[in-house]
Design goal:
By secondary structure, the chain is an alpha+beta fold. It has 5 helices and 8 strands, in the order E-H-H-H-E-E-E-E-E-H-E-E-H.
């Protein structure tokens, strides 16, 4: 599904979500973007913030009436408190939708590409042969997070990656596809792609060793020091 954006940071993309045309032999397996409502809830914690506002408002109202405050004053304060809460939650929800609409996760037969960024566009390539495991965390609304555990030695800045990182994991930082619709199917496709890529690399290495062995046998005497 395509969306129109308020800015043109990504208008130059030859393929949506990618910085350039795919090289020969590489193909897109799937492309998804986060669900805006799910991202607002899980990344910007709109539910928790809403509960926090509700507790504050209820406590203030209880204190007001317990000290003999009038109904008119109570309703007046309730009105501006509800307006403030609605504004705060509206901002958080808007951020969730904005971050979702400027994010594209692309899975090819060679890599995972994370394209994201509202004020500062970012793009991160994660080769499939550097992904050791994928952890799925499903949510009740059909979306889910897919955490990508990288091979040892791979390092990515948490703050450069946020919010597309597993929360509260700073060492090592774990890139994550956040609030992905149909997360279970996407995770299955990703796991199959990683396995296929690992097999292709293993076969290529075996062929390379066999060619090297043949070259050694065919080399004239004294050619090898």
């Amino acid at each position: 599904m395509s969306h129109s954006h308020a800015n043109n940071e990504y208008d130059h993309e030859p393929i949506r979500g990618l910085p350039e045309e795919l090289p020969a032999g590489e193909e897109i397996l799937c492309q998804v973007e986060p669900d805006g409502w799910s991202m607002a809830r899980r990344t910007f914690h709109t539910v928790q913030v809403g509960v926090y506002f509700a507790i504050l408002i209820a406590a203030h109202q209880a204190y007001h009436y317990s000290t003999g405050g009038s109904v008119a004053q109570g309703l007046s304060s309730l009105g501006w408190q509800l307006a403030l809460a609605a504004a705060g939650l509206g901002i958080l929800y808007g951020l969730g939708v904005l971050y979702a609409r400027t994010t594209v996760y692309t899975l090819t037969n060679r890599r995972v590409v994370l394209r994201f960024g509202v004020a500062l566009p970012m793009m991160i390539n994660l080769p499939l042969d550097r992904i050791d495991a994928a952890d799925l965390r499903p949510f009740g609304d059909g979306t889910g997070d897919i955490a990508l555990r990288l091979a040892k030695g791979e390092w990515i800045s948490y703050w450069a990656l946020w919010p597309h990182a597993r929360p509260w994991h700073l060492s090592p930082v774990i890139p994550s596809l956040r609030s992905v619709p149909g997360a279970e199917k996407v995770a299955e496709t990703l796991i199959a792609a990683v396995a296929a890529r690992s097999n292709d690399i293993a076969v290529a290495r075996q062929h390379g060793r066999e060619r090297a062995a043949r070259d050694d046998r065919l080399a004239p005497a004294g050619a090898l020091a």
